[in-house]
Amino acid sequence: MTKEEIYNFLNNKNISYEITEHGAVYNMEDLSAVELPYPDSDAKNLFVRDDKRLNYYLITVKGSKRVDLKKFRKDNGTRVLSFASAEDLMSILALTPGSVTPLGLLNEKEVSVKFYIDKDFVNENLIGIHPNDNTATIWLKTEDLLAIIKEHGNPVNVVEI
After folding, report:
1. Which among 67, 76, 73, 62 is positioned nearest to 119, based on CA atoms?
2. What CATH number has the domain bearing residue 140?
3. Rounded-to-integer distance, Cα 69 and Cα 66, Å
4. Does the global pTM surpass 0.90?
5. Which phi and psi angles does 10 have, rounded to 5°?
6. Number of Cα atoms under 13 Å in the Cβ half of residue 18
């Protein structure tokens, strides 16, 4: 889905959201130069795979947090993890580096990527994510995002990171 298709999708589901348009950002450092209305609710998204390339995971945390993949592996019972390639990102989620977002799961046909979200987002119930394009951030209720992903069929795991 394109950015416009994401907006239409959310509108058709009657999900309220707010849009912040900005220049293209490729990492959290780039995003720090953007004036955001809810900076404490902005998400960082990591697309990772196991060492056998059998399982893929999307990990979403607060932008200010670091993810220790060794600790994540231990806490969640996965094999050794590393970042997925740009080619995997495009072939599985139809996204480019810098545009990684939970909404990319809607592009996944096999519905096999496991989604992990930091419980802080659930507790605060607001999340800022890209609409499959790194030139905007949309702000929506975390519960709405989780409902969309569950409806699509991807496993959702709320964890402490």
Report:
1. 62
2. 3.90.960.10
3. 9
4. yes
5. -65, -40
6. 11
**What is the DSSP annotation of 9-41?**
HHHHTT--EEEEE-S---SHHHHTTS--S-GGG
In the numeric block, the tokens 């949309």 are attached to: 138
Question: Can you read off the two tokens belonging to residue 92?
Answer: 């599985």
Q: Is 38 helix (H, G, I), strand (E, B) or coil?
A: coil
Provide the token pair at 86.
């740009």
What range defines the domain where residue 133 resides?
A: 3-159
Q: How many CB atoms lie within 10 A of CB 85?
A: 13
**What would the pLDDT profile of 72-125 be if each residue is shown by its tens digit?**
999 999 999 999 999 999 999 999 999 999 999 999 999 999 999 999 999 999
Per-residue tokens: 20: 């912040």
